[in-house]
Specification:
Length: 90
């Protein structure tokens, strides 16, 4: 089991794309190095914060609607999100 966890951790951390893990309310519990590099946030800055607070205002409602539709049994298809950087840029 530890080997599988180590493999997942290596894939998650080494992924070139931004990756994050949230709970059912959108609270961030993990972010990868690409997330830190692109947004300028350190893990400590965002863990425990709502993903929705880090999204551009135009994307917040759609992201919430899609997430809750998925929790209700609907499919969750990929869609673009605009994350704000540490200095507020999109």
């Amino acid at each position: 089991m530890l080997e599988a966890q180590d493999d997942f951790r290596a894939l998650f951390e080494g992924a070139p794309d931004l990756m994050y893990v949230t709970d059912l309310k959108g609270t961030l519990s993990k972010v990868n190095r690409a997330f830190e590099r692109v947004t300028g946030y350190n893990r400590e800055d965002v863990i425990g914060r709502s993903l929705f607070d880090l999204l551009a205002a135009d994307d917040r409602n759609e992201a919430r609607e899609r997430m809750f539709a998925h929790l209700g049994g609907g499919s969750l298809l990929p869609f673009p999100l605009t994350l704000l950087t540490r200095d507020g840029e999109a």
